[in-house]
Amino acid sequence: MKRFHTLILGLTVLVLPIGAISASANPDSSSWSVNGFGTLGVVRSDEEQADFTSGLLADEGAGYSDQWSAKVDSKVGVQLTSNFASKFQAVLQVVSEQGHDGSFDPQVEWANVSYKATPNLTVRLGRTVLPTFMASEYRKVGYAMPTVRPAAEVYNLVPITNSDGIDIIYKKRFGEITNALHFLYGQKNTDLPDGFDINADNAFTLANTLEWKNTTLFASYSQADLTTEVLNSFFESFRAFGPEGERLADRFDLNETTVHIASVGVRYDPGDWFVTSEWTNSRSRSFIGEHQGWYATGGVRIKALTPYLTVADLQAKGALSHPGLPIPQAEPLNRALNQLLQGNTSDQMRLAIGARWDFSPSMALKIQYDHIDLRRGTRGVLSNTQPGFEGNEPVGLFSTTIDFVF
Questions:
Q1: Which of 58, 110, 327, 354 has the lowest tally of Cβ within 10 angstroms?
Q2: What is the pLDDT of residues 110-164, one digit of tens each?
Q3: Reduced to 3 states, what is the DSSP secondary structure of residue 231?
Q4: Would you put residue 386 in left (φ > 0), alpha (ψ -120 to 50) or beta?
Q5: Low-confidence residues in the chain, pLDDT < 70
Q6: CA–CA dist 361, 406 (Å, integer)
Q7: Is there a contact between 355 and 367 (Cβ–Cβ < 8 Å)?
């Protein structure tokens, strides 16, 4: 709980300056605005040998670390927007949520300046959202989502949520149709445990969102060159066995390895009910391999109550093992390689049922139960697996959250 207390401190640190800004700002001026969002929640998992976390870059969660965890979904964010010239806007968004080190230290999520070149064309420079998915713009804002959290089967495939570079958006109306074409190019350095990091260079995303009446269609393609030194010494051991070891290391290491991500989504929301679905494929020639995930969520709105149902699936494409080097001396390395491949393979199906209650214009209570069927003995979306983890029993999750905006 000590680390979770940092979240409360972070909330205080983030929110206190709002009063100072409001007090000093001219009430007749519209050049500054401050908005925020947050989630307070707890999750219970019946899996004792692994954790259910908020994502691949989180430290701990519900299950092995704590049967009940307040770290999974709890977060708070504040966004400061300045329209400092007729065509210029600056945005700073800071979010406090659990990181890879277990702390809730506030991190800069967005920090960019945009220029509205024409009524349809906007160019942003700095740190902007990575538009990989249909809900990328608000994936951290629990209040904006009908479910407790984004579907991990899709959104965990790209745990990085922002990029440093240039972002171009061209938005055009054609009668009842609004189309937004989104292009991003940049790079991202992400901290990992034990002092390592992962670099994404030459990263670009091309995304398109089409809205027509109650229907939204989305498609995107992303590509990035990933590099990390976490396993350099491991794969160097294979290279010591000559050309055959070199080929095997080049096949599975993650040094300037290109990752390809394709995603499509659809949402239909006439008001009284809704259905939304997304499909994503992530592929790389490395130990990460290829994964394909999808989900479908439907719900009905009965005044302030919204019951919903989600079906989701995540599949690993390909084998969970590799024969390795046909040399007796390399057998320990071969076993370690297969453990690495299986540990980074996710294969599961999930059924979730829940309800959202909008008891206030700016607050919502959600309750959700997830039944996860792990396949092929893999960890699915779980992390922090322990030696006793087998991955052949269903996992039950109970979650409750209070989401708010201000």
A1: 327
A2: 999 999 999 999 999 999 999 999 999 999 999 999 999 999 999 999 989 999 9
A3: coil
A4: beta
A5: 1-30, 195
A6: 10
A7: yes
- CATH at 149: 2.40.160.10
Q: Enumerate residues 6+ apart whose C-beta is below 8 A from 242.
A: none
C-alpha torsion sign, points 51, 53, 56, 57: negative
Domains of the chain: total? 1
* Burial (CB count <10 Å: 0-12, 13-18, 19+), residue 187: middle
- Is 77 within 8 Å of 140 (Cβ atoms)? yes
Name 95's Cβ contacts closer than 8 Å, sequence gap at least 6.
75, 76, 77, 106, 107, 109, 140
- In this structure, the number of other CB atoms found within 10 A of the CB of residue 302 comes to 11
CA distance 279 to 132: 11
What is the spatial distance between Cα 133 and Cα 262, in angstroms, rounded to a whole number? 9
Both structure tokens of 134: 């249909």
Residues 6+ apart with CB under 8 A from 162: 109, 110, 127, 128, 129, 130, 188
Spell 217-244 as b/e; 16+ CB within 10 A means b: bbebebebebbbeebeebbeebbebeee
Torsion sign, CA atoms 321, 326, 331, 336: negative
Stated as kind and residue range, the H or E segment containing 177 is strand 177-191
DSSP state letters, 151-175: -HHHHTTS---EEEEEEEEEEEEET
Give CA–CA dist 256/227, Å, rounded.
5
| Sequence-ordered list of residues with C-beta below 8 angstroms from that of 278, at least 6 positions apart, any chain | 133, 134, 151, 154, 218, 263, 264, 265, 266, 294, 295
Domain that holds residue 254: 2-405
Chain center to CA of 132? 10
Q: β-pairing, 305-317 with 75-85? A: unpaired
pTM: predicted TM-score of the whole model, two decimal places: 0.90
Structure tokens at 12: 């205080």
Query: Can you list the pairs that 322-326 forms with residues at least 24 positions away whose Cβ atoms lie under 8 Å?
Result: 322/248, 322/252, 324/248, 325/238, 325/241, 325/244, 325/245, 325/248
Give the span between the Cα atoms of 106 and 242, in whole angstroms. 47
pLDDT for res 8: 39
Find the radius of gyration of the CA atoms of the chain.
Answer: 22
